[in-house]
Amino acid sequence: MPATDNPQLDPKRWKALAFIAIAQLMVVLDATIVNIALPSAQRDLGISDGNRQWVITAYTLAFGGLLLFGGRIADMVGRKRTFITGLLGFAGASALGGAAVNTGMLLGARALQGAFGALLAPAALSLLAVTFTEARERAKAFGIYGAIAGGGGAIGLILGGVLTEYLNWRWALYVNVIFAVVAVAGAITVIREPAEGRNRGRLDIPGVVLATAGLVSLVYGFTRAESDGWGAQVTIGLFVAAAVLLAAFALVESKVKAPLLPLRVVTERNRGGVYASLGLAVIGMFGLFLFLTYYLQVVKGYSPVVSGVAFLPMVAGMITGSTQIGARLMTRVRPRLLMGPGFVVAALGMLMLTQLKVDSSYVALILPAQILLGLGMGTAFMPAMSLSTHGVQPRDAGVASAMVNTSQQVGGSIGTALLNTIAASATTGWAAARLAGARSAAELQQLKLQAMVHGYSVAIWWAVGILAVAAVIATVFINTGHQGGTTVASGSGQDEIEEIAVPVIAH
């Protein structure tokens, strides 16, 4: 990494990045690693089909609901302290889940994982934001972080497949202990947090209650929509409750002296554009992970390990887009000129997958589509991650970081429920018109596979549209200049930013 003569820069910052990246990878891949292991865990513990979804939902509800709270805790008590606490708690909860002897023990452990992940994730991103303040280095650091944030879900599918097939489903949870121990050791020895970035205000208890209840209602509403239908009373009730609670939260935040989420963080045009476009992009991506996993294993007959390896081109594309395109160009061009085209390229890759058939070739169709998806998302994620905390007052870095994670977490929950519901409906409609005419068991099985793939392609069309909307939002709302400078808060104390030009990144 490039040396610098600036004595204010932390000499151990690149080592710190390595350990922050390990922690972030652990949190991101945990959203998908358990998906691969779930069938084995269900058989081993005798989990009912009705309770199966709670292995995933317990984690997402706690994680998504407590993120803003975790971000503000990091601002108040210290990001390094919160980071280490989150790591230790996540490791303990993972060990508990790996040792689970019944359904309740596993579900409780998953909820604890989500709660400690809500402490860990915003602390990790805000540590990165306050550690790397020089523009060229910030670009490289966020390039690495963006690649992990974008590709971690796919890495989870690969690692989950390997651990489940060659060891045991429990290792999909135990592996987090290894990640956490390494990250804690590194955090204690090399991570240094600027003391002046603390927020000494009181904790906004009404804001915590309203935000947590509102986000839990929203995430759970999409979960119930998937299982019970969009018109079910419980689904509608949860969405209404979420709207009321989040509206009340916004009202409270505008009135209290020390808000949980200062509205200046989200109403600033550029950050608002990042949160909205990133959330929409994740909706499309999480649905795709689900469909491609089932397509490769059920339709193509791939093993869990081979299915995981089949996602490697997408991971490689994300790393390349983030570190070689996004990071190199971030100090030269405006963020919207990376994010908008990045989402468009991802949408083109998604568009290719609308042509999925039962006998589609992996090399001819799925491979190039994954490369386009990875390149596009990696290029867009990198400036998005950096811009989400760019220009934020140091005392708000944790909660601004939490908003990025919240948009991703809520987007992932919405994407899984929304696109899966669309796919199931399209599959049922296609099958109802054709299965009755099947003349043999083999023909019936083939028609079932065709119905399944038809449902996937219909849902992927929706994902294409969602990514297109993300591209429009990024292009229209994000109007800041390139991040080739440092940020200086104005005397007003608001988020008005003065950019100071510095040389572009060297090749």
Automatic annotation (TrEMBL):
SUPFAM superfamilies: MFS general substrate transporter. Residues 16-483 form the Major facilitator superfamily (MFS) profile domain. It is a multi-pass membrane protein. Pfam families: MFS_1. CDD domains: MFS_MMR_MDR_like (cd17321). Gene3D superfamilies: MFS general substrate transporter like domains (1.20.1250.20), Multidrug resistance protein D (1.20.1720.10). It comes from Streptomyces humicola. The keyword ATP-binding does not apply. InterPro entries: EmrB-like, MFS, MFS_dom, MFS_trans_sf, Sugar_transporter_CS. This is MFS transporter. It is found in: Cell membrane. The chain crosses the membrane at residues 16-38, 53-71, 83-105, 111-130, 142-163, 169-191, 203-223, 229-252, 273-296, 302-325, 337-356, 362-385, 458-478. Keywords: Antibiotic resistance, Cell membrane, Membrane, Transmembrane, Transmembrane helix, Transport. The keyword Cell membrane applies.
